[in-house]
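Researcher: Next entry in the queue.
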Amino acid sequence: MAAAALLLPLVSAGPSATAEPPGSGALQREFAAAADRYHVPESVLLGVAYLQSRWDTHSGAPSVTGGYGPMHLTDARTALAEAPHHSDGSEDARGDTARPLAVPVAAAPAAPAAAGLPARLRTVDRAARLTGLPAEEVRTSPAANVRGGAALLAAAQRELGEPLSADPARWFGAVARFSGADDTATAGAYARDVFSVIRAGEARTTDSGQRVALRAVPGLAPDTGQLARLGLRAGDASETECPATVSCTWIPAPYEEFGDGDYGNHDVADRPRSQKIEYIVVHDTEGSWDTTLKLIKDPEYVSWHYTLRSSDGLIAQHVPTKDIAWHAGNWYVNAKSVGLEHEGFLAAPDAWYTEAMYRTSARLVAYLAKRYGIPLDRQHILGHDNVPGTTTATVPGMHTDPGPYWDWAHYFELLGAPFTPSGGARADVVTIRPDYAASRPPYTGCESAGTACAPHGSGAVRLRTAPDESAPLVKDIGLRPGGQDSTEDVNDTGARASTGQRYAVAGRQGEWTAIWYLGQKAWFHDPRSAPAAVGARAAVVTPRAGLAEVPVYGRAYPEAAAYPAGVPVQPVSPLPYKLLAGQRYVTGGEAPAEYAYAVTFDPASHQVVRGAERYYEIQFGHRVAFVKAADVEVRPAGR
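Model: Structure for this entry, 639 residues:
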């Protein structure tokens, strides 16, 4: 489902070429040596590298935009575009049976020639010329990569007519230039982020075991006036809804009518007056930035509200948040959500996201959450892979991005809502929280079906039928109605719990913890020496006394009596799962019974149907679901 539009390196890098020099302080010494050689303040060099990669090397693999090494120097020589994201699989991105869409078809843009790629995607070659090192070495050797980054910063400083000063405050313009952004707002936002890192300081152990530290420089006030001398264009942020701390540009999705009353690619609405916005949905694009922007401009394609660029964190807004975009595959969720597409690939774990994109995304989400009163938790900040199918028939075709390699723990730290224990060691509820770097469950299917994926950090845990590594994975009867076992495929969410998701504890045995999951007891390895979860406190639902089981729904639609004349009654269709007596599931709170009727181009006929029925949202499996309030009782947060 996810092998699309990859940016490929000129050559592949083998492990031997990317091995760090011996000693956990070697990379720190390389930063110091490169800073000294090119007369760049070490704090500036470290700050830029942190924003690019958090000082990781990713075993020499390129990022989404063909960036290599700690400095994220780029060599995106070849861009291959295949099936675009929402043309993959069988999911109807709109997710409304009253106005179903065929799976959209969009032609993939032709791959650009190397000379046609922007300079921000070709920095390896320039770094090689400046250092005299072979381009392959700049890509594959962390030491050469750091030297290349320092040389580029020094060159940018000289081009500005600035001295190679030891004062980091004199380097704001050079840092902004390093971003590769072609507009003032994006370059300035990037540089401000770098200097924010320098002021606060950072320290961490990298993915290759290197300990790197940047000593804080509090009170550092860079010369931001240098930005005006870069000759960059002014971005168009006039119609955007973004916080002032990010760079945002307006690239509208067309709202157009065509043939036989059909229209696309979103619905005009009046949220939050018409309906409260309750969710933010995180997607990855499964395509490059340029491909994604071409698709959003197609009136016969689908839509989302924002796209985020990996190289520098630039945000493009396409649909006003008051309007309903077609992105999540579930109309109830679409009508109450904002969709964010991130430049990236689910099944390419080493096509890594930059820190710049994680940070701007987190700022945008925090801004939207505050504006619309959305809780900062995993039952309201959803991955596309957490959105439920609307009916039994749609469950198998639901999308699975951003997948097990999205770093939810780091993302929520940036949101200011880290997943810390709120309950004791024997709490009745747990929050899934493995160590992202150390947790490397095996996956298959990244390159071809059944083929092992490269080992990589993951925020997900596997769920088994018994407390034993040899026990089968739990089944998902929605994904596999025939009762077949779940698999380790990267797109198989049937036996997976993800960082930040909360579940009621169903048992403990030795180093294993069981949770209630899809109507069954599911075990995950949770040793005290390397815990995969932390204790939590959260309200749970359980069937009312006397009920052996209650149905589970993929949308919270009103009862038939609530629909006015002229609006077709939407079926309240249960999913194939059951919530059984004695089981408990964490609730994200009440979900109003609503249906947004919008099936025509003219919004004059649009209306929101509200019912007396009440629902609760629950964390039922890897995806959220809904149960009727009349069927369950709510129990308060446990110990």
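Model: The two ends are 41 Å apart (CA to CA).
Researcher: Noted, moving on.
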